[in-house]
Prior knowledge:
- The protein has helices spanning 24-38, 57-73, 84-92, 105-113, and strands spanning 3-8, 11-16, 21-22, 44-48, 54-55, 76-80, 100-102.
- It is an alpha/beta fold.
- Residues 22-95 form the STAS domain.
Amino acid sequence: MILKVTEQNGITIVEFVDVTRFTLASADEVKTELRPLLNNKDCRMLFDFHDIEFVDSSAIGCIIALFKTAKSVGSSLKLCNLTPEVLKIFELLHLQVIFDITGTRESCMADYAK
């Protein structure tokens, strides 16, 4: 199990456990674990990337697939705590336009509280 999933104030919080790379090796597991949660209408998910130093194309594809799942049923997915390296990849791919990315978990929680 590479993910820790908790709930706080009605927000599903997801973070990686003992992992610094989000790659093909873990993308299927992440999708399999999170897709059912996002399929619940009105799921509000916060995906915390605080320890992730690298993402590959499979990880990006996984995040896009999860975002599409959320959007299709009225759920939402926000990303936070992206390291500078990971944020740069998102910016190079112009994914910051698609995803709601915040700097900290607290700011992401505050966005959901609005």
